[in-house]
Amino acid sequence: MPVLEARSLVRTYRSGETPVRALDGVDLAVEQGEFVAIMGPSGCGKSTLLNLLAGFDRPSAGEGGPAPGRADRRRRPHGAGPGGTGPARPRRRPMTLTLLRLALAGIRSRLLATTLTILITAAAAATLVIALEVRASGVDPWQRTFQAAHGAHVLAIVPSLDDAHTVAALPGVAERDDPVPSAVGAASIGGHSERLEFAGLDGRPAINAPVRIEGASQPGSGIVLERSFADALHIAVGATIGVPTPTGVLSLTVVGTAVSPSQPRYPRHNPGLGWVSRDTLARVQPDQSRWVWTQPVRLSDPAAAPGFADAAAAALPSAEAQAGGNAMISWQEQRDEALLDSQPLTVILGMFTILLLAVGFAVTGILTAARVSAQYREIGLLKAVGLTPRQVSTVFLVETAALGLAAVAVGFPVGAALAPRLAAPSAQTLIGSPSLAIQPWHALLAGAVVLPVLLLSAFLAARRATRSTTLAAIRAGSPAPTPTGRLARAVARAGLPLPATLGLKDLIARRRRTFWTATAVAVTGAVVVATLQMRAAVRIPIVGTVSDVPTELSVLVYSLDAVLMLIAATTLVAVMLLTVREQIRDFGVLKAIGLTPAQVTAGLVSAQALMAVFAALLSIPLGIGLYLAVVSITGGSDNGTVFAPWWYLALVPVVVPAAVAVTTSAPARLAAQIPVAEAVRYE
After folding, report:
1. Which of 169, 372, 387, 609 has the smallest CB count inside 10 Å?
2. pTM value surpassing 0.85
3. Cα–Cα distance between 456 and 516 in angstroms, integer?
4. Can you spell out the DSSP letters for 382-446?
């Protein structure tokens, strides 16, 4: 009795306006226990027939599938649903489950590739999340500081007292305070002089008051320093600073430290800020025509602060003010200035995200292509039992998407947890520490950036292999690349030692893998070169200034360097293991004709090291360009930019190939030790 039947089975597709009949009246009966092979040229309808018999597609005419009583379903005429009514629907659920099972099997069977993909993708997702969260984590501390200071919705910094009164009298002002005069002078600290703005207070301001951190809140006969200025110059409460005045040096005792929501961090904002009494200000700068006045106002509608600032600037009658001697700072601008320390972090994190995605694209392509190569015969069998090339590619895409989602799930909490630590420099001018600001849409954005990169790489790697003919894949078992072209012939004629020649020809034969591996090495080298430049700039600051580079920024760069180097090293090991697995039989043949294990190892390692030499040379200009881009984007100038000593850069083409040789030597030695008999029998 047949277990599988087809009667007058027809399946017609349309190519534009032309009908294409893939099956034309097929009759088939398969008895229980019978083994049947469906053979024919590519495009004759084998896959279409199997899809119809399995219920994955529905025929244009006829009927087919398991015989009555089989697979818990009954044959019914084409076009009829259960009970003979309604249209039949293709059974897509079994195909979906099949694809998911194949993808899951691929993930579990290749733990090294799975781990490497998740590591790279999680690192990229984490850096992107940090870039998004680092500013948001400082918003709450700024708001707490603004509330404690009873902050000004608009600060009018004007050259005259009359201009200050004009701003305070404008419509929309709900609360005003007396204007605060200030003048820029100098402070002698530890034998060198620093610029310092002295703000003269008659008492505690009602608006935009300094928020006490340590010591006294009012200066009295001394001075209260803004905290980031005191921390940068290591000035403790109780210390004495010298202030040059027209009548001599005035000694002021530091009686306390404070913060203000309108004052950015020193030395990014220079000069620093100190609060003194009005009498002390008059001694520092007796010429009141050189004073600048700050008029703080609070508005009935805080959201209208930018518009009020524009109206205030237009309302000032002073010629000096109209010429640009004033500044109107809304509370939104105060917040942005206070949190501006996150900008270089965001730029560097964004660049590292791009670099990690580039490495991830390369590694995903390498690993997917290697898996396709290792499963070349299995792919042929899948196509023989009915899967189309698109469905086979879907298996790899589903696998990559699952790994990408897992990586985003790992990278998002890591990035969100690290963001407050990296936002710590902003806390020097704020109350409290940056808070954990977990925003789920950041995870969605990270996934929207990372997943398409991985999927595109996997698709491009799998597309070419899955288009091969079924019979060729089953016969070959795995595609055997052959070194062809002028470069391969030049290597053969170069007179190099046999191991080096074989290694180089293998790199040429697998040029796509070689290209992406070299890309990963070059990107990692470029980051190291850029870090050397940044380190030189940090260690050689401009004479007489305080370094504006937060410690957290250096730690971040070094940590991301370490992650990239770990990823590059793991990638090299994975690539070497893939190469070894594909060439075990070749190694056995080479050893059978007289090559020693040491020569086999040398052939593998020397080829990878030579590839690393070219990648390292390319990484030098890339790294310098990356460094200059960071300097430019973060507001620096190319003039006077500090570069690392030339001998640092000269070491890159030496150290990188040596590191690659050390990393790849272990798997190469293991492969070379496999006995000849086992290597030749390896399938």
Report:
1. 169
2. no
3. 14
4. HHHTT--HHHHHHHHHHHHHHHHHHHHHHHHHHHHHHHHHHTGGGGGGSSS-------HHHHHHH
